[in-house]
Structure to design on (228 residues):
């Protein structure tokens, strides 16, 4: 199974600051079609997960450009610029390149 | 607007069965692979099973193989998860999610509690 190592487990940040979350996979996430199926999800308290970024760097509709995703092969980063109060929740990376699908353990973003 | 609505969860005794449903709307259901993903209380996300758009291919995590069956009815735009021989460790909120570009849409989840 592909192990997704996500760090840090939690972040406490002031409004307006920027943060980065790291996600490292135990195998390359490049699929045979050349695409990399690494995605970022946000789960706000009491809600179901919502995808923010797909295939490393593509923002979903309605997601502000304060969010950005970078990386390749086995090393990926989610960056949130100018954090707002509505950004709080748990962020997960997820890979759908290989079965079984696997997820990072989550990063809880709290607002100072 | 894409909507996924899960149902069928509840309290069930160990060893018994339960069947979850996920009603889809707002997209062409038959064009998309689908997943079941679960989340135990206060825990992270765990993939359970997947099915191809036609239903011809299915995939399961090892811990549910032989006990769970994923299926779909494209005419009804509905995804199913038949869960047999339930165990306490299957207690979780179960979400259905679309494939496509990768876990694009999620339902609100349905809670399954396995307890005597």
């Amino acid at each position: 199974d592909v192990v997704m190592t996500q760090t840090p487990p939690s972040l406490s940040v002031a409004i307006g600051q920027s943060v980065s979350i790291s996600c490292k996979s135990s195998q390359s996430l490049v699929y045979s079609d050349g695409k990399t199926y690494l995605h970022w999800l946000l789960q706000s308290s009491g809600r179901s997960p919502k995808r923010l970024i797909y295939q490393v760097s593509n923002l979903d509709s309605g997601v502000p450009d304060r969010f950005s995703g970078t990386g390749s092969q086995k090393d990926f980063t989610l960056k949130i610029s100018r954090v707002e109060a509505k950004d709080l929740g748990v962020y997960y990376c997820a890979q759908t390149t290989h079965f079984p699908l696997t997820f990072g353990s989550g990063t809880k973003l709290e607002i100072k | 607007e894409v909507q996924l609505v899960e149902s069928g969860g509840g309290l069930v005794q160990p060893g018994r069965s339960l069947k979850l449903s996920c009603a889809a709307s707002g997209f062409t259901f038959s064009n998309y692979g689908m997943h079941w993903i679960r989340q135990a209380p206060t825990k992270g996300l765990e993939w359970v099973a997947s099915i191809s758009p036609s239903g011809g291919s299915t995939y399961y995590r090892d811990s549910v193989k032989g006990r769970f069956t994923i299926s779909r009815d494209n005419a009804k735009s509905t995804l199913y998860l038949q869960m047999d021989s339930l165990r306490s460790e299957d207690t979780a909120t179960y979400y259905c999610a679309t494939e496509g570009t990768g876990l694009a849409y999620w339902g609100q989840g349905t809670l399954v509690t396995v307890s005597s």
User: Anything to note?
Assistant: DSSP finds no helices and ten strands in chain B. Chain B has a mean pLDDT of 97.
